[in-house]
Amino acid sequence: MLSLRDLHVHMGKLHILQGVTLEVKAGESAALLGRNGVGKTTTLRAIMGLVSKTGGTIQFDGLNLSNYPAHEIAGKGIGYVPQGRGIFPGLSVLENLNIGVKGKRDRDREDYVFACFPRLKERLHQPGNTLSGGEQQMLAIGRCLMMRPRLIILDEPTEGIMPRLVSQIRREIHRINQSGVSILLVEQNVETALKLCSNVFLMEKGAIVHSGTSPELKARPEIVHRYLGLTQ
Ligand SMILES: Nc1ncnc2c1ncn2[C@@H]1O[C@H](COP(=O)(O)OP(=O)(O)OP(=O)(O)O)[C@@H](O)[C@H]1O
């Protein structure tokens, strides 16, 4: 489904991504973990065409994503929920949900999103900036779901969100994955990543330094300690 091979990104003189190789297969959930500043967000932004790669390939379902501008990549079946959520603050929940929908409203899809996140339905006409952080995150995920993606990429979706909503968001991400949508998740919380995702990629200094299944990593706390500086 998604395949990054030897991906490089430079920013000015900085060599930010130094050969990232990773794969997410159809239906899989993968976590990308690493300390601050190792290049996780840059990897996601490169996939979405928001930063230019200087080497390597990015393939999605047989397409070479580098051939498409950023605004077309979302339409290829990849949903992106950036850090900070990226919702439109002055637009209502309903308007935010439908921002990428071409033509008439897809009410079936809206109902699916409301079934995932009933709070959004209760706040349908409320401007985005009046929602709590957790509700904004639900809205950002809901907006992706409106486009019927086959893969959703999430950058720290539970960062700075009140605990009660964190568990709901995690549960929904799990359910979305169970419904067949692949997930690529950047997550600070190792425990959450291991619970939610079947596969894990550990990143350091712009490259993947370890990959494996979550149970494999759980059984190797010394690796978690070496690359993330903590034990589970
Ligand atoms: N636009 C930019 N210009 C210059 N350097 C940048 C730019 N964006 C990111 N960087 C640098 O690239 C490196 C990787 O950043 P990135 O945001 O990808 O890391 P990260 O692993 O997602 O970190 P965090 O967990 O803190 O979000 C950092 O050193 C960062 O300062």
The ordered string of helix (H) and strand (E) elements is: EEEHEEHEHHHHEHEHEEHH
Helix content: 25-40%
Specify the number of helices.
10
> What average pLDDT do the residues reach?
92
Domain ABC transporter: 2-230
GO molecular function, one term: ATP hydrolysis activity
Organism: Bradyrhizobium erythrophlei
GO biological process, one term: L-amino acid transport
Features of this protein?
232 residues; alpha/beta; Rossmann fold; six-stranded mixed beta sheet; 10 helices; 26% strand; globular; binds adenosine-5'-triphosphate; ATP-binding
Any overview of this molecule?
This protein is of the alpha/beta class and 232 residues long. It has a single domain (2-228), classed as Rossmann fold, CATH 3.40.50.300. The chain is built from 10 helices and 10 strands. The strands form 2 sheets. The chain has a 6-stranded mixed beta sheet, sandwiched between helices. A 4-stranded antiparallel beta sheet has the order 2-1-4-5, covered by helices on one side. Strand 9 and strand 10 (207-213) form a beta hairpin. Helix 4 (107-116) packs antiparallel against helix 6 (133-146). It is globular. The two termini are 30 Å apart. The model has no long low-confidence stretch (mean pLDDT 92). It binds adenosine-5'-triphosphate. Adenosine-5'-triphosphate binds at residues 11, 14, 16, 34, 36-42.
